[in-house]
Design brief:
Length: about 475
């Protein structure tokens, strides 16, 4: 969309405000809103100034002036504001006109450019499957003398005896019993459908929605694949709509990987493939799961670099509460066709040559999507460049349920890091694949690790309520 088309859209839709947004290191959106009367062609040339020192992981106070440069291809009408508002996602620049190398969107763009100059292909496509919970109540605190959290959902398994409903209505979702039941067990059909409707109005091509495995409001909505940066933009749009529709219904949505104990968490399975023009490069009829050698090498790169990659695709302490065996968590660094216990799965049901792809099941939605998709692509391209054969390295294929194997059978299967600190250690030891072509910089990685180390430490030094049960009587 051209600048002129955006200005015409503002007039056509009676837009009163234009909301300029950027994405920080952690994947959270920030915004500055201008009256539409103050937005003209010059705005798209000069950008919108903001204070970078107030954004976690950006700049110091002595170099705080930064500029948001609007991307006219990212615009959509905000479905929630009382005053008609147009949302525009922006790239971040320094005052001297240089792309800011800590801007996650800049890194996503550089990854796409690196692919185009690599000789491998022209376009990488990504499709995230981002799961979430919808709760009725959430409360938490962490102080000097108190630490607790509480979440509740009217459909949760623990509420079979709840009286607050004025007579319990039953039909609760059992633990691990939430996969695609119909109403009245699935009580959230309408709220998900409203999310889908608004996503479609905002330009997403939604393919389906359903209740997920866990009790207490587990949900998934799938939207169609797109190019790397566009898919990351779409995921930001998706999360914004999910959060705000839930709020309109008097509920709260969270993409936290493991908000409740004892049931499945929320992942973000990421499908990806590479094309050369209109030619799919991951398909080869007769190969394992009809995969080409290039696709297998791409898998090899992801699995080889997975411990480091996970520091970016699963960048929270809570991520590793999900990545434990027994809850469909993809903790095994192997590949397989159709096997959900493997970190990399190759979908085989109703797949065409153009739909041939790999699914990295480990990530979750605490990841910054621009960084996560870029890192995945760089790991896969390194595998292609080095012709990493995943089978030769013992990464499979494993077409049996790995959780059913004996300890002896599993002893040579690598697992994901057990903690965020372990993943960050792996990233510090294995980052060169990310800095190829200047996509990520060493300075960016050092800064990222520092931010995440601080998060991990802030959790590690706090007293956990369960410790009282374990140790208070010592």
């Amino acid at each position: 969309m051209s600048v002129q088309q955006v200005l015409e859209l503002i007039k056509e839709k009676g837009i009163e405000f234009v909301d300029f947004r950027f994405i920080d290191l952690t994947g959270r959106a920030h915004h500055i809103t201008l009256p539409a009367t103050e937005v003209d062609a010059e705005t798209f040339v000069n950008g919108v100034a903001f204070d970078g020192s107030s954004i976690k992981g950006f700049r110091g106070i002595e170099e705080s002036d930064m500029v948001m440069m609007p991307d006219t291809d990212s615009v959509y009408v905000d479905p929630f504001t009382a005053h008609p508002t147009l949302i525009v996602i922006c790239n971040i620049y320094t005052p001297d006109g240089q792309r800011y190398d800590r801007d996650p969107r800049s890194i996503a763009h550089k990854a796409e450019e690196f692919l185009q100059t690599s000789g491998v292909g022209t376009t990488a496509f990504f499709a995230p499957e981002s799961e979430f919970f919808i709760f009725d109540d959430v409360r938490y605190e962490s102080t000097m003398n108190s630490s607790s959290f509480f979440v509740d959902s009217e459909e949760a398994a623990w509420n079979t005896n709840r009286k607050e409903e004025g007579g319990n209505l039953g039909f609760k979702v059992g633990v691990k019993g939430g996969y695609v039941p119909v109403a009245p067990v699935d009580s959230q059909q309408d709220i998900r459908s409203e999310m889908v409707r608004l996503m479609q109005e905002a330009g997403l091509r939604v393919e389906r929605h359903h209740h997920e495995v866990s009790t207490a409001g587990s949900a998934e909505i799938n939207f169609r694949f797109d190019t790397l940066t566009a898919s990351a933009d779409n995921l930001m749009k998706y999360k914004y709509i999910v959060h705000n529709v839930a709020r309109q219904y008097g509920k709260v949505a969270t993409f936290m990987p493991k908000p409740i104990f004892g049931d499945n968490g929320s992942g973000m399975h990421v499908h990806s493939s590479i094309f050369n023009g209109s030619e799919p490069l991951f398909y080869e009829k007769g190969g394992y799961a009809n995969l080409s050698e290039m696709a297998l090498n791409y898998i090899g790169g992801i699995l080889h670099h997975a411990p480091a990659l996970i520091a970016i695709t699963n960048p929270s302490t809570n991520s590793f509460k999900r990545l434990v065996p027994g809850y469909e968590a993809p903790v095994n660094l192997v590949y397989s066709k159709g096997n959900r216990s493997a970190a990399v799965r190759i979908p085989v049901a109703a797949v065409t040559p153009k739909g041939c792809r790999i699914e990295f099941r480990t990530p979750d939605s605490t990841a910054n999507p621009y960084l996560a998709f870029a890192a995945m692509l760089m790991a896969g391209l390194d595998g292609i460049k080095r012709k990493i054969n995943p089978s030769a390295l013992g990464y499979g294929p494993f077409d049996t349920n790995i959780y059913d194997l004996s300890d002896e059978q599993k002893k040579d299967i690598r697992s994901v890091p057990a903690t965020l600190d372990e993943a960050l250690d792996a990233l510090e030891a294995d980052y060169e694949f990310l800095t190829e072509g200047g996509v990520f910089t060493k300075e960016f990685i050092d800064n990222y690790v520092g931010v995440k180390r601080a998060e991990a430490k802030s959790v590690a030094i706090r007293i956990h309520p369960h410790e009282y049960g374990l140790y208070f009587d010592c």
